[in-house]
């Protein structure tokens, strides 16, 4: 179900997932030792932040492809400019804050002491391809998203001319040729997930009447069972395959939300708290690491206390940050939003939708930094 130029529920889904990322980082900082769960058994569900990576990457491809899927897979002009305007101002502002904290506040969890190399690499969004100390442990995904944006027009072209199977084959080609261990960086690993979201948008544009919520549960249940059975250490070592296995469940979930066949789910995901979280979710992703790092380093590392202090502080910071640095101009619908629109609608920009922003957990390659 769409409301104007938005799919009802996607913002709320993004907001709730972003809040999970905040809780995930609070848990890791209070109970170090990742990938082992050194905290209480009841908190084990908070250790699998990588699953949020899959959810957000699939959602990114889905939300960006909704309008092209309704318009013959045509993207229109100005896509790169719009993406840069949406992503870069807030990202660069958060990068400056993180660099300042890394310089002035001393060593902090998930915030490495940075140098000129780090500043250049992260400012140019090269961190998935060039090694450099991370001024903010959550920034790795921005480079992944930026790279996926570059191939997005190509994926749309392949989908329009050759179909869904060929599109997925193109996305999987680097991994098929080199194997999981032969690819460097996370962009290649995430490309099939992003593409699956894109293809799911084509289904959501003309959805058949199927029990999408039940299909989501059936797709997720085997993967979640294996994760619970084998534990976090085994899961972390096999995340490449876990990602591919769980991604269809997330794609089905997005189709279920878009078709709005569940009144209960729609009410929950469009409720005011979820919607508010969704609107500031990108800034919440960018700024939650400095907030949590400062609180756990200087105040307390008890999980309940950390959550009670860090979660509201991070949300408040993100709300203010979004008002200053996220663009909110124009009134016309965007071709890359759910409602589509004509090419003329690209002249003015709508308020940003949270589902178009990347929001994923810390860099697994530097997990030791959270200890």
What does this structure look like?
By secondary structure, the chain is an all-alpha fold. The chain is built from 13 helices and two strands; from the N terminus they run ββααααααααααααα. It has helices at 10-30, 50-69, 79-104, 116-123, 140-162, 164-178, 187-205, 212-237, 239-259, 263-270, 272-279, 281-298, 303-325, and strands at 2-3, 6-7. It has a two-stranded antiparallel sheet with strand order 1-2. A hairpin with a 2-residue loop joins strand 1 (2-3) and strand 2 (6-7). Helix 1 packs antiparallel against helix 2 (50-69). Mean pLDDT is 84; it is low at 1-5, 329-362 and 364-371.
Strand content: under 5%
User: How many strands appear in the DSSP assignment?
Assistant: 2
Low-confidence stretches: 1-5, 329-362, 364-371
Widest sheet: strand ordering: 1-2
Reading the helices and strands in chain order gives: EEHHHHHHHHHHHHH
Spatial extent as radius of gyration: 20 Å
Cα(first) to Cα(last) distance is 43 Å
Helix content: 55-70%
What's the mean pLDDT score? 84
| Number of helical stretches of at least 4 residues | 13
The chain-level structural class is: mainly alpha
Give the overall form.
globular
- Give the biggest beta sheet: 2 strands, antiparallel
């Amino acid at each position: 179900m769409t409301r104007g130029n938005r799919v009802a529920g996607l913002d709320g889904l993004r907001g709730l997932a972003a809040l999970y990322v905040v809780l995930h980082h609070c848990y890791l900082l209070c109970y170090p030792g990742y990938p082992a769960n050194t905290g209480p058994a009841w908190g084990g569900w908070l250790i699998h932040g990588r699953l949020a990576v899959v959810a957000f990457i699939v959602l990114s491809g889905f939300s960006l492809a909704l309008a092209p899927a309704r318009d013959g897979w045509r993207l229109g002009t100005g896509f790169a400019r719009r993406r840069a305007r949406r992503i870069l101002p807030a990202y660069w502002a958060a990068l400056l804050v993180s660099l300042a904290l890394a310089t002035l506040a001393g060593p902090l969890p998930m915030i490495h002491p940075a140098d000129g190399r780090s500043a250049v690499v992260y400012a140019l969004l090269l961190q998935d391809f060039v090694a450099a100390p991370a001024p903010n442990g959550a920034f790795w995904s921005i480079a992944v998203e930026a790279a996926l944006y570059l191939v997005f027009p190509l994926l749309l072209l392949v989908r329009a001319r050759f179909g869904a199977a060929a599109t997925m084959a193109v996305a999987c080609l680097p991994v098929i040729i080199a194997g999981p261990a032969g690819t460097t960086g996370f962009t290649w690993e995430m490309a099939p997930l992003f593409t699956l979201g894109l293809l799911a948008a084509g289904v959501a544009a003309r959805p058949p009447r199927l029990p999408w919520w039940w299909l989501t549960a059936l797709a997720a249940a085997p993967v979640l069972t294996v994760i619970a059975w084998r534990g976090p250490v085994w899961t972390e070592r096999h995340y490449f395959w876990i990602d591919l296995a769980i991604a269809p469940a997330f794609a089905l979930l997005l189709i279920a939300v878009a078709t709005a066949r569940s009144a209960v789910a729609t009410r929950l995901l469009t409720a005011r708290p979820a919607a508010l979280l969704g609107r500031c979710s990108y800034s919440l992703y960018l700024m939650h690491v400095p907030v949590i790092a400062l609180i756990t380093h200087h105040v307390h590392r008890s999980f309940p206390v950390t959550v009670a202090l860090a979660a509201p502080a991070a949300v408040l910071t993100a709300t203010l940050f979004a008002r200053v640095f996220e663009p909110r101009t124009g009134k016309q619908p965007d071709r890359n939003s759910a409602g589509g629109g004509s090419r003329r609608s690209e002249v003015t920009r709508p308020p940003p939708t949270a589902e178009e922003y990347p929001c994923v957990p810390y860099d697994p390659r530097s997990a030791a930094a959270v200890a």
